[in-house]
Amino acid sequence: MASTLKINTLTGVTTAGSIAVTGEGNSTTTNLQQGLCKCWADYDLNGTAGIDDSFNVGSLTDNGTGDGTLTFSSNMSSGNFAVGTCYNNETANKADLKLYNGTTDGRSTTILRLRKFEDGSAVDADANTAITHGDLA
Fold first, then answer.
1. Residues of the chain where predicted confidence (pLDDT) is lower than 50
2. pLDDT score recorded for residue 26
3. Do the Cβ atoms of 49 and 59 come closer than 8 Å?
4. What digits encode the pLDDT tens for the residues 90-99?
5. Any residues with CB less than 8 A from the CB of 65 and at least 6 apart, and which?
6. What's the order of all strands across the beta sheet hosting 39-44?
7. In contact, 109 and 77? CB cutoff 8 Å
8. Of the candidates 4, 23, 46, 99, which lies 20 to 30 Å from 86 by C-alpha distance?
9. pLDDT tens digits along 118-132
10. In angstroms, rounded to a whole number, what is the distance separating the alpha carbons of residues 98 and 18?
11. pTM of the predicted protein model
12. What is the 3-state secondary structure (H, E, C) of the chain?
């Protein structure tokens, strides 16, 4: 028989902010908080810059062609977090995202600055996505 568990808060027994989850095969555990995405965004830098959808992003700044800064709503604990990005210049086919060719200039506890290039030149894209994994402050 299936069960439904409805709760608002999960708290670890040993450490309130740490919950171990048994992994595949029942032989290892992973820390739940470490495995969660801490920020993601789907945003546009072509024409009028804007955020289409996001989590933990307070604002987007268009710094110029191919250059955007996402400001976190909740800060990261350090600038040492993982970033994944991709983009598409054709809004009609947003599902056909390409790997991001650029840099993550200005990665800090409060922002993620991304610059995109095609064939060595900075370009704006209709569909940009970014995710971060790391520790929140």
1. none
2. 83
3. no
4. 655 555 555 5
5. 122, 123, 124
6. 50-55, 39-44, 127-133, 82-88, 98-99
7. yes
8. 23
9. 777 888 888 888 999
10. 35
11. 0.80
12. CCCCCCCCCCCCCCCCCCCEEECHHHCCEEECHHHCCCEEEEEECCCCCEEEEEECEEEEEEEECCEEEEEECCCECCCCCEEEEEEECCHHHCCCCEECCEECCCCCCCEEEEEEEECCEECCCCEEEEEEECCEC
Burial 77-88 (b: 16+ CB within 10 A, else e): eeeebeeebbbb
Give the strand pairing for 98-99 and 102-103.
unpaired
State how far the Cα of 130 lies from the Cα of 29, in Å rounded to an integer: 27
How many Å apart are CA 98 and CA 116, to the nearest integer? Answer: 11
